[in-house]
Amino acid sequence: MSRILSIAVPALFFLLFSGSILAQVGEPYIHDPSTIMECDGNYYTFGTGSGGLISEDGWTWHRGAVRPGGGVAPDVIHIGDRYYVTYAKGGGGLAGGHASKVYVMWTKTLDPQSPEFGFNDETIVASSNGIEDCDAIDSAFFLDPNECRLWLTYGTYFGFIRIVELDPGTGKRKPGNKALNIAIDCEATAIMYRDGWYYLLGTHGTCCDGANSTYNIRVGRSRSVTGPYLDHMDVPMLKGGGKLVVAASGHYVGPGHFGLLDLGDGVQKFSCHYEADLLQGGRSVLGIRPLLWRDGWPVAGDNFREGTYEIQSERSGYALELTVDFVRMASGMRAFGRAFEGPVTPVPPQELSEVAKDWPTGNIEVRIGDYMFRPHQKWTITPVTDGGGSFGSPYFKMTIEGTDRALAATADSELVTVPAFTGAPEQLWRIDQLIDGTYRIMPKVVPNSGEALALTAVGRSTPTLAKFDPNSYKARWSFKTP
To answer: Is 40 left (phi over 0), alpha (psi -120 to 50) or beta?
Structure first.
């Protein structure tokens, strides 16, 4: 978070803002967020300055997280019965120059109301003297899943990104461990592991200039946690390489500070901050987006957007539809063996008013059938105000276009459409993008069931609700624009 522009910038690093509305909702105002961590049913992220944010569901965030020490760009990791927190003091340019110290401390809980809350054993694990080619801030943890070794990366645009090894039992730096250089021209780094590769993600560009910040996140990979890290063009990150993962989009400017959120079952997301949300006065806000994988590389997905769609089964290529009689369009039969005569007259699309009058007035079941861009196959998907949400996304209602007829889960773990949307929890739907770009669709609640179930094509034409299988196409869906 340090690449300071040569202009008169206030100490933005130490500000946390208040307010409401999107990226997430509530009070999502934060700079340099740590990896989001679950503790006792709540979610926490810490930022530059002091404190941080708390959420009950990963969607609505409020101030309230407590972290002593102030400083900049913290990170957090859970190992055993401890939550380790790292942050830095000093550095970052401006009056502080580039002399800095990286600290690690631990607590048994992140809940500031718990009697077990309290940070212990604060210790220095890395430093820079202001002269060497390193600025020791922007630290982040990585626990190697292969060897259970704990690593810490740190550094900024001023010099090298470095990695050191820590003791996972204490959080302290291993005696005699030498810091290794692994990248340049980035900051706010993080490491993750997948399929035999270690991925080093770094934030590239300029920060701390609001809507004019050029932050973006880039990545290289290596077979070893200590490098060398190369990008998709085999350019070493020690020579400034890095494949783009995410950049500015829409009204969100300057994504930085990657944090992995592995939700299991083929759903991965990542947190970041946007240097500026133009719709919120250019404030720095918390963002959460899907993480996709293409050709062995991570790339940012997009949170689901409201609209009208065909909901296509990846199992069969058929579409989710109402179980109603098929109504023929007035186009006649094809004239085999005869030349077409007369003027060419367009066939108008089938309209809702032509068919809905014959639909049942009560509940109507759903099925999967050949998509014919007919009214009973078009779903309008809209976020529900005050309906809550999950990481990166609100809950949605799913209605037949032009009607209030809503998709709902039943007490038998089946699917039905009800005549009108009431806001009941079984009518609220979570839509998560999977790592391959398809989607998982889940009701917020299945009546009389405590299980988390997903919309599943149990047969080529039969939908149901069942436990999600990440290794099957049965519960993967795509949304196509009619």
So the answer is: left
Domain 12-300 shares a fold with domain 307-326+351-480? no
pLDDT in tens, 247-284: 999 899 999 999 999 999 999 999 999 999 999 999 99
Domain 307-326+351-480 CATH assignment equals 2.80.10.50: yes
The secondary structure of 174-238, three-state, reads: CCCCCCEEEECCCEEEEEEEECCEEEEEEEECCCCCHHHCCCEEEEEEECCCCCCCECCCCCEHH
Neighbours of 244 (CB within 10 A): 15
Distance of alpha carbon 107 from alpha carbon 118, whole angstroms: 5
Q: What is the mean pLDDT of residues 472-478?
A: 97
Distance between CA atoms of residues 251 and 212, nearest Å: 12
> For residue 16, is pLDDT > 50?
no
Q: Note the pTM of the prediction, 2 decimals.
A: 0.91
Backbone angles phi, psi at 50, to 5 degrees: -145, 155
> Does position 335 have pLDDT exceeding 80, yes or no?
no
The count of other CB atoms within 10 Å of the CB of residue 192 is: 21
What is the structure's pLDDT at 95? 57
Taking only the tens place, the pLDDT of each residue in 227-249 is 999 999 999 999 999 999 999 99
Domain boundaries, the chain: 12-300, 307-326+351-480
By the 8 A CB rule, do 286 and 275 touch? Answer: no
Q: What is the pLDDT of residue 330?
A: 79
Q: What do you get for the CA distance between the two ends of the chain, in Å? A: 43
Q: Where are the alpha helices (DSSP H) in 149-305?
A: none
Residue 141 contacts by C-beta under 8 Å, 6 or more apart in sequence? 35, 75, 76, 77, 84, 86, 150, 151, 152, 166
- 25-26 and 243-246 beta bridge pairing: unpaired
| Local confidence band at 96 (pLDDT 50, 70, 90 cut-offs) | low
Class of residue 392 by CB neighbours under 10 A (exposed 0-12, middle 13-18, buried 19+): buried
Q: Output the six-digit token pair for 249.
A: 């989009």
Phi, psi dihedral angles at 268 (to 5 degrees) = -125, 140
| Spatial distance between the Cα atoms of 409 and 447, rounded to a whole number of angstroms | 7
Measured distance CA(363)–CA(416) in Å, rounded: 6
* DSSP code, position 278: G
Distance of alpha carbon 459 from alpha carbon 64, whole angstroms: 48
pLDDT averaged over the chain?
A: 91
DSSP letter assigned to residue 396: E
Task: Quote the tokens at residue 357.
Answer: 């009058």
pLDDT at 334 over 70: no
Residue with tokens 């699309």: 349
Q: What is the pLDDT of residue 332?
A: 63
In this structure, CATH architecture of domain 12-300: 5 Propeller (2.115)
Average pLDDT of the residues in 310-333: 91
Torsion angle in degrees (nearest 10) through CA of 407, 411, 413, 418: -10
